[in-house]
């Protein structure tokens, strides 16, 4: 395996360009992924934020839901941000009808959890495993993690709520690190991909 892993960004909807740039800055070869056959050969995958109901629908439409579930089950490292975190939850507390996830993390998430008054905000978040002080968390109609299973590591909390988790090779944050120019979350993911390959 080379030291420059190829990492896909699920490009159905959301801030794909920003993730491609952040991955490149973290020394990965970043490629957009829209079709099931594009999963072949990836060392990892990022699922961007956006709208989880839309991502769920488009993934089904593009025939990606089952191949992605299978890839995650087989151990593909994945990093989901915001709506991407929702897509990686084994269970959504308040799904829209027909809304499905890929799963991968034994957790229950609450969509739009921070409420109307707090729809979008930034906060300093201390993330376990990320050196150099807190990261600037950009929260946009963000979910939080309501509860986790025994195999899930909680990496960060904000306001008493879980906002970053990891289970094996699958990482997820409620916030959007791709919007800040601070690439430490992507570096954390890329180094885990490298270590596991
Ligand atoms: N509220 C969105 C959802 O439920 C997530 C928002 C985001 O990704 N910024 O999918």
UniProtKB/TrEMBL annotation:
Catalysis: reaction(s): L-glutamine + H2O = L-glutamate + NH4(+); aldehydo-D-ribose 5-phosphate + D-glyceraldehyde 3-phosphate + L-glutamine = pyridoxal 5'-phosphate + L-glutamate + phosphate + 3 H2O + H(+)
Descriptive protein name: Pyridoxal 5'-phosphate synthase subunit PdxT
Parts of the chain that traverse the membrane: none
Keywords: Glutamine amidotransferase, Hydrolase, Lyase, Pyridoxal phosphate
Function: Catalyzes the hydrolysis of glutamine to glutamate and ammonia as part of the biosynthesis of pyridoxal 5'-phosphate. The resulting ammonia molecule is channeled to the active site of PdxS.
GO biological process: L-glutamine catabolic process; pyridoxal phosphate biosynthetic process; pyridoxine metabolic process
Pathway where it operates: Cofactor biosynthesis; pyridoxal 5'-phosphate biosynthesis
Family, similarity comment: Belongs to the glutaminase PdxT/SNO family.
PROSITE patterns for this protein: GATASE_COBBQ, GATASE_TYPE_1, PDXT_SNO_1, PDXT_SNO_2
Enzyme Commission no: 4.3.3.6, 3.5.1.2
Species per Swiss-Prot/TrEMBL record: Actinacidiphila guanduensis
InterPro entries: Class_I_gatase-like, PdxT/SNO, PdxT/SNO_CS
Listed GO CC annotations: cytosol; glutaminase complex
Pfam families per record: SNO
């Amino acid at each position: 395996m080379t030291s420059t892993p190829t990492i896909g960004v699920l490009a159905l909807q959301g801030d794909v360009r920003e993730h491609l740039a952040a991955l490149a800055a973290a020394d990965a070869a970043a490629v957009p992924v829209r079709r099931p056959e594009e999963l072949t050969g990836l060392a990892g995958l990022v699922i961007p934020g956006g709208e989880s109901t839309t991502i769920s629908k488009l993934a089904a439409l593009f025939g990606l839901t089952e191949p992605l579930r299978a890839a995650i089950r087989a151990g593909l490292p994945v990093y989901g941000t915001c709506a991407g975190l929702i897509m990686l939850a084994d269970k959504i507390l308040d799904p829209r009808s027909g809304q499905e996830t890929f799963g991968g993390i034994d957790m229950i998430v609450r969509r739009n959890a921070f409420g109307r008054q707090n729809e979008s905000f930034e906060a300093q978040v201390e993330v376990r495993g990320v050196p150099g002080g807190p990261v600037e968390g950009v929260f946009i109609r963000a979910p939080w993690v309501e509860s986790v299973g025994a195999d899930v590591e909680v990496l960060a909390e904000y306001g008493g709520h879980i906002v970053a988790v990891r289970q094996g090779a699958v990482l997820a944050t409620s916030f959007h690190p791709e919007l800040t120019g601070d690439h430490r979350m992507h570096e954390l993911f890329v180094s885990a991909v490298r270590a596991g390959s």
